[in-house]
Amino acid sequence: MSALPRRCQVVVVGAGYAGLATAIELREAGVDVVVLEAADRVGGRIWSERRDGVVVDHGGQWVGPTQTRLLAWAERFGCPTFQSYDVGRHVEIWADGTTYPFTSDQHSEGPGVEDYERLEGRLDALAATIDLADPLACSSLEEWDSQTVHSWVDAHVDSPAARRRLALAVQGVWSCEPRDLSMFHLLFYVAGAGGMRSLMETIGYAQDSRFVDGAQAPALAAAASLGGRVHVRTPVSAIRQGDDAVTVETARGNVRADRVVVTSAPAATSHIEFEPALPTSRRRWLASSVMGDVAKVHLRYDSPFWREDGLSGQMVAYDAQPVGVVFDNSPDDGSRGVLVCFTYGDRYRTFAALDPGERRTAVLDVLGRVFGPQAMQPLDYVEQLWPEDRWAEGGYAAVPVPGAWLEHARDGWRTPCGRVHWAGTETATVWNGYMDGAIRSGERAAAEVTAALAAESPGAVR
Amino acid sequence: MSALPRRCQVVVVGAGYAGLATAIELREAGVDVVVLEAADRVGGRIWSERRDGVVVDHGGQWVGPTQTRLLAWAERFGCPTFQSYDVGRHVEIWADGTTYPFTSDQHSEGPGVEDYERLEGRLDALAATIDLADPLACSSLEEWDSQTVHSWVDAHVDSPAARRRLALAVQGVWSCEPRDLSMFHLLFYVAGAGGMRSLMETIGYAQDSRFVDGAQAPALAAAASLGGRVHVRTPVSAIRQGDDAVTVETARGNVRADRVVVTSAPAATSHIEFEPALPTSRRRWLASSVMGDVAKVHLRYDSPFWREDGLSGQMVAYDAQPVGVVFDNSPDDGSRGVLVCFTYGDRYRTFAALDPGERRTAVLDVLGRVFGPQAMQPLDYVEQLWPEDRWAEGGYAAVPVPGAWLEHARDGWRTPCGRVHWAGTETATVWNGYMDGAIRSGERAAAEVTAALAAESPGAVR
C-alpha cells in the first residue's frame, strides 16, 4: 500500500459511486484529492465477482434509461451494457401454490392486478405533488411522514391481493416491510425515480440493462483514473475540525485537508468520531436512517434451460417462501444460465436464521417448483447477505423512519457541517438509493466543495 | 485517577443506575467487578447539581410508589425523599390563550377531558393484553408495531382535543411525537408502568416524590459503596471477545474479563467497536432505537411565590409554546422557589433552534402569562439540552421505531452476545425508561452473569 499523503485539499471518505464521483469532479476542477476507503475494494454496495468465467453482481446491478449519470459513466469508462433478458413467460406464485403466467405486455390474471395498477397510479399522483427541488416544502409532509406505508395502505386499499402486491413492491424496492417505511419517504423516492413503473419494471425502466463486466466495472475504471489517490483498507476513525483545516484520522496515519466529503453508508458514518460533535439534527437524521435487509443468491447452470420452456426466468413469490423475486441473470451471450434470487424484509430474517445448508435447500425448493428439477442441480450456489457486510451493514439503502424527514431533514439531511460535506445515494433527490443517485450526490457535493474552496481562496480551483 | 486493573471477572460499561445496580449485585455474589464510565461523573441521565444551595435535577428526578427497586435504593443508601408539591390549582393553556384551572382531584373543564379519559382507559385495556414476561407473544404485536401512535389515534380518536391531550402525554412520557412512536411500544411501556395514570399523574404515581439531595444521590452513594472499582472519564472504545476472555479497550489501558455487561445508552453503545461484530439483530435493534429530544429548564426565585396565589406551579401548555409542562421543583422546605420547564419533541426542536437569549425570553414569556410578572425575574436560569449531552445524545430513553419490536427484539433486545450481556433502562420490562427500570435491568443482567460464571466455574461466585 502506498503511504497516505499528510496534506491535500479534499479528503473523500468512501470509494463507492458517490465517493468516486466526488473525487472525479474535484479532480476536474483541479483540486488535490485523496479518497479513503474502509473496505479492501472500491464500489461500496456494488461488487462484481468473476466466478468460473461468469460475472456475479452481489450488489446493485441494473441501469435504466433515465439513470443518465450512470449511463454517462458507462460511456465514459467504456463499460458496455446489455438489455436484461425479458423474453417469455414470467411466473407469479401465491400462498396457496397457484401460479399465474404474465409477460411485460400481458398482465397476470392473478388476484388484485387491476386494483394494484390503480394503486400505482394513485401513488404516482401523490408523488407528483412533491417538488424534488424542495421536498420539505410538500404541503402533506407532516401527514405522510407521520404514518407508515402499512397504515396508509390499511386506510386506502381495500383489496387484500393489491395490498400483498404493494408489500412485495416495497420489499423489492426498499428491502424492508411497509411497516418500516414512512409514507413520505416512499412518495419522495417514487418522485425521484419518475414513478412506480419506473422503479418496478424491467425493459425501459430501472431493471432495463446490466453491465457486461458487472456493475462494479465503472467504479473500478473510475478508481483507476484517479491513479494512486484511492486508498483501500483505510477506515477513517475520526474527523477533527480546526479553525483552518480538518484532520482525518486513520490507523495508517492522518491527513489534513481544507474540506472533507463523507460519502460512506450511514452505518459506517456512525462509527466515525467527529470533533466537534455533529449537530443534533445530523446525528438524529443518521440515527433515524435504518438500513434495509436483503440477500442475493446466485445459481449457475450449464445453460439458461428455462428459456427453452418459454420461461423468462422471472418469478415473483407472494407466498411466505424465503425467496421474493427471481431474475434471469445469465451473461449477455447466454453461454451459461444464471438465476438470481432476492430475499428481503421479514423473509430475509427467516432466511438468514436458517443454517447455510437449509438456506440452499429452501432456495432450490422454490426454484424447482417453477423451473423444474434441473433448477435444483446448480453448478454454483453463492449468497451475499448484505446485513452481514462489515461496512454497509445492510442494503440497498438506508430508509428514514417515520418522522425523520419532518423533524431532522431540513438541517440534518445533507447540510454541510463546517468543513465536512455529505454525499452518498441517501442524499440524492433523483434516483435516491441507486448508483445513479450516488453519482449525482457526489457531483452535487463536489460542486459545494469547489464553491467553498473558491470562496476561501480564489486560486484553489480551476 | 487510579490505574485500571488488567484483569477482573466482570467489566461493567456505564455507571448510570443500570451499571451501578449490575456492579452492586455482582459484588454481593462475590464477583470481582470493574465499572468503566465515559463521563466525568456517575449517574448517566441522572445528574443533580447544587446551585447556590439548591439542588437542581437536570435529568430524571421523580420516584413513585410502585418503583420499588429505586425506593429500596433510597432506603439502603439513606437518601430521603419528599412528596412533590401538589397543592392548589394547576393551569392548562390552549392555543387560543384560554386557560383552565384543575387539581389532582378536580378535572379541568377544558376541551376533550372526558374523551381523553376514555382514551386512557382504552389504552390501559389494550396494554393489559401484553404479558410482560413475554411481550413478543402478544397476539397484536404485528398490528400495533406496524403503525405509529399518530395513525392509531387518527383511526380511533374522534375528538381533536383528546388527540391534543394524548400528543402532550406522548411528549411528556416519551419525549417524542406520536408519529415517532410505535403503538406497540406505547402499550408495552404503559403495561410496564402499570397504566396511563401511573405514568401521567403526580401524588401516588410516577411523579410522586423527589430526592432531598437530588436523584443522583443514590447513584453517588452506590458508586461510593463500590470503592475504587468505578472509573470515570474512561470511555470504552472496543470490546473484543476471545475464546476464554473478553478484552475491554480504553485510552487508559485494557481490561481482560470473563464477562462484560454493557449498560450504556444506545447512542453511546453504538460508538463501541465490537469484535466479532454484534449479530445483525442486535445491531438492527440498536440502530432502530432513537433517543427522544428533551430539555429541562430550571428557574430559581426567592420563594415559591405562586403558592400564595393558590397555584401549584404545575402548568400544561397545549399551544405551540416551546414549554410543554411546568412543575414546582422547589426544595423540600420551600425555602426557595424553583420552577422546572420541560420541552420535548417538535417543541424541543423549535426551542433548541433559538439562540440562548431567545430561549430564555420564550420561557419567561410563558411563565409570565401564568404566574405573573414575578416569574419573569428569576435569580437563576439554567437549561439542560439532553440531545447535546455527549454520551446520552438525548433523553429520556431510546424509543424503538415502528417494526423494531416485531423484527429485531426476539434476538436483539437483550439476548447476551457470547460473553457480552446487556442492561440499561431500555432493556427493562417494568418501568422501562425510568431509574427503577434501569436498576431492575442491572439486577437481571447480574443474575445472567452470575449464572454464566457459575456454569463455567462453580467456585467463581458465592
TrEMBL record, chains A, B:
Annotated Gene Ontology MF terms?
monoamine oxidase activity
* Gene3D superfamilies the record matches: FAD/NAD(P)-binding domain (3.50.50.60)
What keywords were assigned to this record?
Oxidoreductase
Please list the residues that bind FAD.
Answer: E37, A38, V236, E426
EC assignment: 1.4.3.4
Keyword Oxidoreductase annotated: yes
Cofactor(s) needed for function = FAD
From which residue to which does the signal peptide run? none
Residues annotated as binding substrate? F342
UniProt xrefs under InterPro entries: Amino_oxidase, FAD/NAD-bd_sf, Flavin_amine_oxidase, Flavin_MAO
Give the similarity note.
Answer: Belongs to the flavin monoamine oxidase family.
The protein, known as: Monoamine oxidase
From the broadest rank down, the organism's phylogenetic lineage runs: Bacteria, Bacillati, Actinomycetota, Actinomycetes, Propionibacteriales
